[in-house]
Amino acid sequence: METRVALLSIIVESPEAVEQLNALLHEYGEWIIGRMGIPYRQKKINIISIAIDAPQDTIAALSGKIGNLPGVSAKTVYSNVTGTR
Predict the structure, then answer these.
(1) pTM
(2) pLDDT for 21-73, tens place per residue?
(3) Helices (H) then strands (E): counts for the chain
(4) Residue 51: how many CA atoms within 13 Å on its side-chain side?
(5) 79 Cβ partners below 8 Å, 6+ apart?
(6) Are 69 and 20 within 8 A, CB to CB?
(7) Tell me, what's the pLDDT at 82?
(8) Domain ranges of the chain
């Protein structure tokens, strides 16, 4: 199965969405390489970066599900690095 390396950039503006977001990240945990979260307390938001190595359809599905959460924005940047798993 061919995979791609990508970075998901997530901004959480609604604290109520955190539990749903964490559930999604847990669901896709086998594909996640690493995660970095930065609470920006002055603006009352959280900034999260997710490094992922997964099939492109899987990455798109996760990004779409995250972007559909209320109060959450997500963008994905794809690397040209591919591989098999």
Answers:
(1) 0.91
(2) 999 999 999 999 999 999 999 999 999 999 999 999 999 999 999 999 999 99
(3) 2, 4
(4) 6
(5) 4, 5, 6, 7
(6) yes
(7) 85
(8) 2-84
Residues whose CB falls within 8 Å of the CB of residue 47, separated by 6 or more in sequence, listed in order: 9, 10, 11, 12, 37, 38, 40
Torsion (CA) 8, 84, 81, 75 in degrees, nearest 10:
-20
Distance from C-alpha of 62 to C-alpha of 59, rounded to nearest angstrom: 5
**Shortest CA distance to 52 belongs to which of 73, 75, 29, 18?**
29
Helices 56-67 and 18-27 cross at an angle (nearest 10°) of 170
Rounded distance between C-alpha atoms, residue 84 and residue 77, angstroms: 19
* Fold (CATH) for 2-84: Alpha-Beta Plaits (3.30.70)
User: What span, in angstroms and rounded, lies between the C-alpha atoms of 83 and 66?
Assistant: 25
Distance CA(11)–CA(38), nearest Å, equals 10
